[in-house]
From TrEMBL:
Cofactor: thiamine diphosphate
Pfam family, one: Transketolase_N
Protein name: Transketolase
Domain Transketolase N-terminal span(s) in chain numbering: 14-233
Length: 247
């Protein structure tokens, strides 16, 4: 999809994909909600929704094209499983906190999952939302942090350090858990519901996970894949080179 569209953000999609798949396939019930705050991982979300039969395969081929239903960031309406347009970073947690409080006020069951990047914890609105969620003791809220330690312009440590983020957020009245974001068993343990407070799960991830040429590389944030990277990725995953070259 990203190759055909000629767009980047591949690294941050691959770091978040395992968590998104796990939540959607094993945890998300009809009354639960998922908010992708790091909207630039829309490609991974679309693939996840496709894998659950909520998006048609034909739609995937239109990713990022003019007139598509699948733009580069999640659209505000029109797709099942997506409730908000996101990707202006720092907006997802405020929305998720609102959903979690609304569920409680309406006496509804259901968990709310919010997947944030690590870089967007530099946004004030994310911290305002965390204060709100902790104060409201939204135990039905689980916040996942894709802690790949890279953001658009450098490592999180270089740009504006909150590292290690689990220790920083432990100062709030939330339950902090940590897990390898590519270890499904570890994530299953870490993503069990909270009891009396919001749960924050720091997922230790690798940007570009699964494609050695991208793993841990800053340029996997913005840059489109090269043909060599596409070939390596496809060989690694399927054992075969791409069936066609880019358009
Ligand atoms: Mg990051």
């Amino acid at each position: 999809m990203h190759r055909d569209a000629g767009v980047g953000h591949v690294g941050g999609n691959l770091s978040a994909l395992d968590a998104m798949m796990l939540v959607h396939h094993e945890m998300l019930g009809a009354s639960d909600r998922f908010v992708l705050s790091k909207g630039h991982a829309a490609g991974a979300l679309y693939v996840t929704l496709w894998s659950r039969g909520l998006i048609a395969e034909a739609d995937l081929a239109t990713f990022h094209a003019d007139g598509t239903r699948l733009p580069g960031h999640p659209p505000a309406r029109g797709l099942p499983g997506i409730r908000f347009g996101t990707g202006s970073l720092g907006h997802g947690l405020p929305l998720a906190g609102g959903l979690a409080l609304a569920a409680r006020l309406q006496g509804r069951d259901g968990r709310v999952f919010c997947l944030t990047s690590d870089g967007e914890w530099q946004e004030g609105s994310t911290f305002e939302a965390l204060i709100f969620c902790a104060h409201q003791r939204l135990a039905n809220l689980t916040i996942l942090i894709d802690y790949n330690r890279l953001q658009g312009f450098g490592t999180t440590e270089e740009v504006a350090s909150l590292d290690p983020i689990g220790r920083v957020l432990a100062g709030f009245d939330v339950e902090i858990r940590e897990a390898d974001g590519h270890d499904l068993a570890a994530m299953r343990r870490a993503l069990t519901p909270g009891t009396d407070r919001p749960v924050v799960v720091v997922l230790h991830t690798v940007k570009g996970h699964g494609v050695p040429a991208l793993e841990g590389r800053l340029d996997s944030h913005y840059l489109p894949l090269t043909e060599d990277q596409v070939r390596e990725a496809m060989l690694g995953v399927t054992g075969s080179p791409p069936t066609r070259e880019s358009a």
